[in-house]
Every structure is written in structure tokens, then in C-alpha cells.
Automatic annotation (TrEMBL):
Pfam families: HATPase_c_3. InterPro entries: HATPase_C_sf (IPR036890), SMCHD1 (IPR038892). Gene3D superfamilies: Histidine kinase-like ATPase, C-terminal domain (3.30.565.10). This is SMHD1 protein. One of its GO terms (biological process) is double-strand break repair. It comes from the Eukaryota. It comes from Vireo altiloquus.
């Protein structure tokens, strides 16, 4: 890499966890993306890109959320899809010490390439690992274990309230990915963890599936 013998450097994950002798076997797996930096908190000079490979659930290929919504007690399914996206934001902002801000924008122009639904919140943000985990179909935020780093670690389910958005995703019985693919053909998640300077972006498209 052209590093001088007297120059200090660190190797980190995309979540800015430094690779050491103690955690090497845990953090360095096949296909993992690593940063070679002068310091853990060094600002990236360029955007990095990686392709995430996982085996999607067959429902992604054959249903893409349709069944869950059409089976939603015969009601108009679109509010269920929007409720799911709002529910995610409620969960993400549940630990905010200040104002919880959640915006829903319906974009009918070509600013995003096609008409789009944008849900914007000021929650804690997700790391690259948490975004990767979000992409895995049928991986509940409450049951992720082992190598799966949850974006809601330590989160406690609120008591169920009928017909209420309380950030308990299981009430609706569907996830953010089903909601996205019911409404449209692709999803773009942009997130910045509150404790990091890095902005992470994940793109999923029905065409890729």
C-alpha cells in the first residue's frame, strides 16, 4: 500500500471498529469490506461501495409483500404499507431525548427518477452492518442474533395497543421491505449513525431480485 515504515495506520470495518489481534477472527470474514486509515475517525476521501450478497426469501421473488396486504382483513392495503414505514421511524426515534421528527413526502415529479414515497426521521441512524441486516428478508428486528447486529438492540416492545402505531412492527405482520415493494419497485435507505460521521446508503431493487 505504499505505507512508510514510520507511519501509523489502522484497519477498521465500515462501522469504524478497529481490527486488532483479539477481534480479528470475529470481525474479518469472507467478503467483508475494510478501511485502511490513518486513524479510526479519519474522514473518508471518497465514497466506498460494496455489493451485499444474501439469499432472499422466496416470498420476495413471488409475492413481494402482496399476500400480506391483500390478506389484511379486506381493507385498503396502502395505509398498512405507509403505517409500516412510519412504524420503523417511530422505533428509530424512540430513544430521542429531544423532538421526534418524522416526515412523509409523496414525490410525483422526476426528482428521484420516478415518483417516490420518502419517509424521513431524526432517529439514531443505522451502521452499514445494520443496513445490511435490514436487507435480509424475514429477519425480524427482535430476533436478530449472532452476527446480525440489530438496529434496535436493547429495544423493549411496547404493550400492544389496538389500531395504534406504537413501533411494534409485529402488529401489522409485515416488514419494511414488503411495504416498500408493495408501494414501488425499489428502496433507497440513507442513514447516518448519531455517533459516526459516515453516511451509509443501501439500494434494493425488485429488478435485482
Amino acid at each position: 500500500f505504499g505505507i512508510a515504515s514510520d507511519e501509523n495506520f489502522v484497519i477498521t470495518t465500515t462501522n469504524r471498529k478497529e481490527i486488532t489481534e483479539d477481534n480479528f477472527s470475529e470481525l474479518v470474514q469472507d467478503g467483508v469490506t475494510l478501511y485502511l486509515l490513518q486513524s479510526v475517525d479519519q474522514m473518508l476521501l471518497l465514497a466506498t461501495k460494496e455489493r451485499i450478497d444474501f439469499l432472499p426469501h422466496y416470498d420476495t421473488l413471488v409475492k413481494s409483500g402482496m399476500y400480506e396486504y391483500y390478506a389484511s382483513e379486506g381493507q385498503n392495503p396502502l395505509p398498512f404499507a405507509l403505517a409500516e414505514l412510519i412504524d420503523n421511524s417511530l422505533s428509530a426515534t424512540s430513544r430521542n431525548t429531544g423532538i421526534r421528527s418524522i416526515e412523509i413526502k409523496l414525490l410525483f415529479d422526476e426528482s428521484q427518477g420516478k415518483p417516490a414515497v420518502a419517509v424521513i426521521d431524526n432517529g439514531s441512524g443505522m451502521t452499514s452492518k445494520q443496513l445490511n441486516n435490514w436487507a435480509v428478508y424475514r429477519l425480524s428486528k427482535f430476533t436478530r442474533q449472532g452476527d446480525f447486529e440489530s438496529d434496535h438492540s436493547g429495544y423493549v416492545r411496547p404493550l400492544p395497543v389496538p389500531r395504534s402505531l406504537n413501533s411494534d412492527i409485529s402488529y401489522f405482520g409485515v416488514g419494511g421491505k414488503q411495504a416498500v415493494f408493495f408501494v414501488g419497485q425499489s428502496a433507497r435507505m440513507i442513514s447516518k449513525p448519531a455517533t459516526s460521521q459516515d453516511v451509509h446508503e443501501l439500494v434494493l431493487s425488485k429488478e435485482d431480485f
